[in-house]
Amino acid sequence: MTMINAYDPAGAGAVPERERQMIARRQRLLGPAYRLFYEIPVHVVRGEGARLYDPDGNAYLDVYNNVACVGHSHPHVVEAIARQAAVLNTHTRYLNDLVLDYAERLLALFPPALAHVMFTCTGSEANDLALRIARAHTGGTGFIVTRFAYHGVTGTLAGMSPSLGKGAPLGEAVRTVPAPDSNRMEGDVGARFAQDIEAAIADMKRAGIRPAGLIVDTIFSSDGIFPDPAGFLAPAVEAIRRAGGVFIADEVQPGFGRTGSHMWGFARHGITPDMVSLGKPMGNGHPIAGLVVRPEVVETFGRTVRYFNTFGGNPVSCAAGMAVLDVIEKEGLLDNARRVGAHLRAGLDNLAQRHEVIGDVRGAGLFIGVELVRDRASRAPAGDIAARLVNGLRERRVLISAAGPAGNILKIRPPLVFSEADADLFLAATDEVLGGLAP
After folding, report:
1. Taking residues 133-159, what's their average pLDDT?
2. Looking at the domain that runs over 75-330, which CATH code has it been given?
3. Which of the listed CATH numbers 3.40.50.1970, 3.40.50.300, 3.90.400.10, 3.90.1150.10 matches domain 9-70+332-436?
4. Are 276 and 110 in contact (CB under 8 A)?
5. Domain assignments of the chain as residue spans, ordered by start
6. What is this structure's pTM?
7. Residue 46, strand partner residues
């Protein structure tokens, strides 16, 4: 399994002494399981908008971090968190108007059929809750995910996140299907993806497993970013529902206007999920997440399970969530994602005309994948070139990473305040690095 954009301690000699000492301290205190990005890890001390800053005041253009969706340290969000923290922060077993006001405002952004929201602290908790509800509603235990998916870090979700590698084996009731890659799937992508879902369902049934659900990140970000053609997800959703299962849309990465045309990735496909999971972008990095669900789907779970999440949806978190919605609306960030995303796509298409290593550019809004290949005829993945490009950009203080099983797809998902000038800076740096890479 490819270790995508991971720091290798064998190269520590190239790391400045100050950061070498920090890395040693980190390993001593945090243990062996954590990973750092880049050949020379980045030391950051503050953020603002689409910039991160190191201790020496150097600015890094952030082309990667979707969690700070309305920009690092946005003053309106910071002020809302501080104001509410000075008044009240407590658990959700007391009545509080702010929690209800936020729930009402958030649900108004979804189709009417999705009428309940359950708050958690992380996207992993939201997805884990979705699995529990799906099992209670369907009576099944089997779930389908794509072959390089990532859905979370709980014990159950690690077993449904093949991108975590062999150290996180798949659960016995989990089946994987190929990602809907329109470059490699022959014929109708939606029909083929639905056929793969049906084959996974049949395999479950042969093993005596009752299907409970299909869960996908609606832009397939870990698999390599596959957004098109819009609408292709509908046949797969019909297939899982025919089998008695539910469809869970993981919107942790594509949600909150990132795709430019809609607030949620699933809306591009003209479907209404049974459940929608949200993650920390809803609080601009503050630990709030949630699950939006059809009332009939959660009815059995709500009637039979004593569920609570102590600080999921606490007043401070809800203040952060409300402030994020304010910023998205007042600063026109949905339109910004559409407009700047189109500008960035056009620039990347132009780079592809000059650099043969760019095999494909695909995306929606400010979520774009750039596939790097050895040659366009074979489309053989060039993960090593992607790694050199990512680290070459880091040397120029532009932060990006990669995705896909071969680590050869640039994963572009900057804060939604990313501007056309930011895009031009990124494009110029990418052009410069690619021009200096030997084939």
Report:
1. 97
2. 3.40.640.10
3. 3.90.1150.10
4. yes
5. 9-70+332-436, 75-330
6. 0.95
7. 53
